[in-house]
# Entry
Amino acid sequence: MKKQYVLDTNVLLHDPRAIFAFEDNDVIVPIYCIEEVDSFKKEQSERGRNARQVTRYMDTLRSDGQLKEGVKLDAGGTLRVMFTERKIPGEVNPHRDMDAKILACALEAKDRHPSLRTIFVTMDTNLRIRADAVGVEAQNYEHDSLEVDELYTGVSELELDGKDIDTFYSQGWLPLEDPYYSPNEFIHLKDRGNQSHSALGKFQQDTQRVVPVNKPKDGVWGIRSRNKEQSFALDLLLNDDIKLVTLVGKAGTGKTLVALAAGLAKVTDENIYSRMLVSRPVFPLGRDIGYLPGTVEEKLNPWMQPIYDNVEYLMGLSQKDKKSGRGWHELVDMGVLQIEPLTYIRGRSIPQQFMIVDESQNLTPHEIKTIITRAGQDTKIVLTGDPYQIDNPYVDATNNGLVHIVNRFRSEKIAGHVTLTRGERSELAELASNLL
# Structure
């Protein structure tokens, strides 16, 4: 059954290509959305960029016909811009309440075409409630979104006979001709008859084998993995063939610490990369840090302090060392470590560097794309974050850039992902993450 979708402004600002995302169904954009989009087009931010892109798309479609009558889309549906003089029940101030005007368009579209199922699409929870109250079906915009509970974890369990696990240990691999496993997916091999008899492996797509996980005997920069997920993460981080690593986990799981340890090992011990570049979003990404006093380094201190704490922990500095002036600055002075605000990364090319972007859940899919496309020859990018701890009001747990990248790169051989579940910071921190 053909449907007609009425889009809210926030959908267009989140995804400028939303007008093309509804297959062969009809798409309606209220004229009031265009007015709201116009008010954002001068912003030097992700939202401003999206506003300008929406305007360009609409202007291009305008050349194919009158938007008032409906313009044919490539997928088979039509795009129409409409307005209405209608008022919705409970409307307080029609001249100031733009949401009411947009919702009135949805109600008008429903009445004009009763044979079509009309769906109002908005990312505003309150507006969906208002739509339901006036009798209009409303949905969230879920294109390219994924529930966190359904997110690919990068880890699977496989029950085998005990002799198969013995074979895995003796010959160092095990055939696994299963097309449903993703490249670099980790597998916990379990004995059907004896749960304590198990092994940890990683799926190699080229050979269709499970091979042992790489576990450095002496640890990495003074740390050792405390659970199997940290072992999996270190395997990906230390593998030079994998250029993109995503680590998802709640606070205290060690995702940032293991990434920093692996990066320092690759830069200082193995000389694989020229330096380690570390950054966190200066929230929001488009916000300039120029209003703060001091150098770029001093301006970033409030956001980068967790990184400094982890680096100094890996350096094994005591309180006496810190009081004497020793600290992470030593690595910066040596050229091993570089602090870079993401605000200024667009347009750069970053070759032969181990790049860590912490708190990536606060980035939009486009911002993540901007970062990854900066990777030059022999650069490795590590994205870490917790989708449940989002500060950016324009993304949520289902549509942020980190979740988007995990979903899109799942089938790529040069990418790997692990979800860390066990907190290792302290017993108190673990309890707080689970109970609060």
Notes: The first strand starts at residue 3 and ends at 7. Residues 296-315 form the longest helix (20 residues). Residues 218-435 form a domain with the Rossmann fold fold (CATH 3.40.50.300). The chain has a mean pLDDT of 87.
